[in-house]
Amino acid sequence: MQYYFSKTLPLGFDEAMRQTINALKSEGFGIITEIDVKKTLKEKLGADFRNYHILGACNPKLAYEALQLEDKVGTMLPCNVVVNEIAQGRTEVAAIDPVASMQAIDNPQLKQSAERVRTLLQNVIESLRG
């Protein structure tokens, strides 16, 4: 099973970031963490890297529901969405498939919750336009 879904856009990194954040918000997600991998690798290792951000997206209602079903599911939250500049004017956006990431948890109700989150994240990716 593939653990993510993605879309490559004919857009620069900044525009892809803007669209991704707006699409997440329109599906009820907030951004609770943002990691600038390029900046972090430069600061910590002196290494050059392309524009690559990891957005920690959270739908509060669904996260609350999941935590009530399985309190250790917090180890798998938030849902990560990656915005990755693959070439000048081309950016890939990828989101975790929460159903795949929660396969190890034997809880049918949690699986149903993860399927709802999957649908929302797929809507986000599908809504992105170049």
Task: Characterise this structure.
The model has no long low-confidence stretch (mean pLDDT 96). The two termini are 28 Å apart. The chain has helices at residues 13-26, 37-45, 60-69, 98-101, 108-127; strands at 4-9, 30-36, 52-58, 79-87, 90-96. The protein has a 5-stranded antiparallel beta sheet with strand order 1-5-4-3-2. A hairpin with a 2-residue loop joins strand 4 (79-87) and strand 5 (90-96). The protein is of the alpha+beta class.
Q: How would you classify the quaternary structure?
A: single chain
End-to-end distance, in Å?
Answer: 28 Å
Hey, roughly how much beta strand do the residues contain?
Answer: 25-35%
SS field, number of helical segments: 5
Main sheet, how many strands, which sense, barrel? Answer: 5 strands, antiparallel
| Order of adjacent strands in the largest pleated sheet | 1-5-4-3-2
Query: Would you report the number of β strands?
Result: 5
Proportion of residues in helical segments: 40-55%
Q: What is the general shape? A: globular
Question: SS-based structural class?
Answer: alpha+beta
Give unreliable regions as ranges. Answer: none
Can you write the helix and strand succession as a string? EHEHEHEEHH
The whole-number mean of residue pLDDT values reads 96
Radius of gyration: 15 Å
